[in-house]
Each structure stands twice: as C-alpha cells, then as structure tokens.
Amino acid sequence: GKKVPSFMFQHIVVPEIFDALVKVPEGTEGAVEYFSEYYVLPEGAVGKLGETPGSPHYNNGQFDAVLECGDVIGMFFGHDHLNTYDVDYKGVKLCCTPCAGFSSYNGIDNGVRTITLYEDDLENFDTRVVTYLDYFDDNASRLLFTINSDTTTSKEKSIARIKYPFAVIFNLF
Fold first, then answer.
1. Are the C-beta atoms of residues 75 and 86 closer than 8 Å to each other?
2. Count of CB atoms situated within 10 Å of the CB of 30
3. Triad 154, 157, 162: Cα angle to 5°
4. Which H helix or E strand runs over 32?
5. Which pLDDT band, with edges at 50, 70 and 90, does 149 fall under?
6. Residues 77-110: tens digit of each pLDDT
7. Sequence-ordered strand ranges (E) for 41-110
8. Neighbouring-strand partners of residue 41
9. Cα of 94 vs its chain's centroid, Å
10. Which of 9, 63, 70, 158 could potentially form a cystine with 16 if both were Cys, beta carbons 3.0 to 4.6 Å apart?
11. In 3D, which of 61, 64, 60, 56 has the Cα closest to residue 12?
C-alpha cells in the first residue's frame, strides 16, 4: 500500500536542471551558458558543472509527471560527458555521470557513478563518481591516462611515452 522509492536512469537530463541551477552574471567563474543566461551549481551541490547540460529546449512534462507519481528519489543521466554533479531539486536528486572511458570528451574526472542503498532506510541513498585516479593516483598512472586518452595531443602522448618507463621504475615526474 506504500510507494516504493525508485530511481530513473536515462540518457538526457531533464530541462528542469536549469531551475535547479543558480543564474549568475556573465563572466562568473565556472558558469556555463544556456541561451545567453549563465548558471553555476547551487550551494550544497556535489560534483562539477563542466559543460552546459544538454537538455531538450522544450519541456515535455516528464519531471512534473515524476513529481506527481511521488516515488522517484533520484534521476541519473549521462550525455553530458564533463558533468559530475548531484543537485537536489524538489525532493529529487538529479545526478549527471561523466564519460567513463579514455575517449570522447576525455577528462581527468571521467568515471562511473556508484549508488549505495540502505536496506533499513529506502528513502535515502548515497552516490558518487569514482574516477580512474581514485584508484590509480600516481605518476605512472597519470602518464598512462595521458597516453590512452583520445583527447590529448600527439606531442603530449609522445612526452608521456618517454616519461612512463621512468615513472614506473623510479617513480619520477
């Protein structure tokens, strides 16, 4: 007889993300532009706003339907390869997960999102982005990341290939 707390997973973020963000003046550090308006994460948000969220330019009512149902406590999105944010909006956590691989918009924040559920408290959960460097944060791993990245230049890759053996053997650089 009770609603079961649930999650939604979809590729594109809902347009209400811009209602959840904070409008700021042009030139504000870290702001992204959307139709000549500028936004940053609200206070208390977790993660980064690395690019303008790629939501539809119209509102199809999906988020309103989610609120009406009343069971969704978290919505998870991909699409925006550089965003890693968690933003609370109207009782729903909106979470963007970055690119996971070494290619396509590669960045040091690439990773996967983990979700921790609590059997004794289904209304709450924890989530975070786990990056490559969370597990491999040493000089050799950083160089290997650079070598395998599709977005580093040929010159950066060449330099990293030269440094890599020395980093592995002598922990240099």
1. no
2. 12
3. 125
4. strand 32-34
5. confident
6. 999 888 999 999 999 999 999 887 766 566 667 8
7. 72-77, 86-89, 92-96
8. none
9. 10
10. 63
11. 56
* Residue 74 near residue 89, CB atoms below 8 Å: no
- DSSP code of 173? -
- pTM for the full predicted model: 0.82
**In percent, how much of the chain has pLDDT > 90?**
67
pLDDT of residue 103: 62
Closest to 83 (Cα-Cα) out of 69, 92, 94: 94
Contact assessment for residue 74 and residue 85, using Cβ atoms and an 8 Å cutoff: no
Rounded to an integer, what distance in angstroms lies between the CA atom of residue 99 and that of residue 107? 8
Question: What's the CA gap between 61 and 16, in Å, rounded?
Answer: 10
Give the position of tokens 């690439």.
110
DSSP string, 131-150: EHHHH--SHHHHHHHHHH-T
Distance CA 22, CA 18 (A): 8
Please name the amino acid found at residue 67.
Answer: L
